[in-house]
Task: inverse folding
């Protein structure tokens, strides 16, 4: 999946400020890989394994949500690395996807990736 845009999510759930970055996202039933590029060209890779999954999505992925609790590792191109427990929510409304990501211990840091296009890989 590639992103159309990325934005912060306000505490009340409304859309916050745009975040100037692009991302390629690979999501499977077992894991997630986000490759994020900032405007200055810094690359951030977040990869993780899902520890819990709660699927409330219909069969054709056109409506519903899938919640993931994920143990993730964050690596920056400058060599910085850390681990984090992450919460992800894949949301589909009318076949339009959004992926929300939140550090489990920093709920106020919620980010939304608005998905531009997706490719199903089997």
Result:
């Amino acid at each position: 999946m590639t992103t159309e845009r990325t934005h912060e999510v306000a505490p009340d759930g409304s859309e916050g400020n745009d975040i100037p970055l692009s991302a390629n996202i690979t999501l499977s039933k077992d894991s997630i890989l986000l490759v994020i590029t900032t405007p200055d060209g810094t690359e951030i890779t977040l990869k993780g394994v899902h520890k819990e999954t709660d699927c409330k999505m219909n069969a054709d992925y056109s409506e519903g949500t899938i919640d993931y609790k994920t143990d993730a590792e964050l690596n920056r191109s400058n060599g910085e690395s850390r681990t984090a427990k992450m919460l992800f929510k894949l949301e589909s409304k009318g076949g339009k996807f959004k992926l929300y990501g939140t550090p489990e211990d920093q709920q106020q840091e919620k980010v939304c990736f608005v998905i531009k296009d997706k490719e199903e890989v089997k």
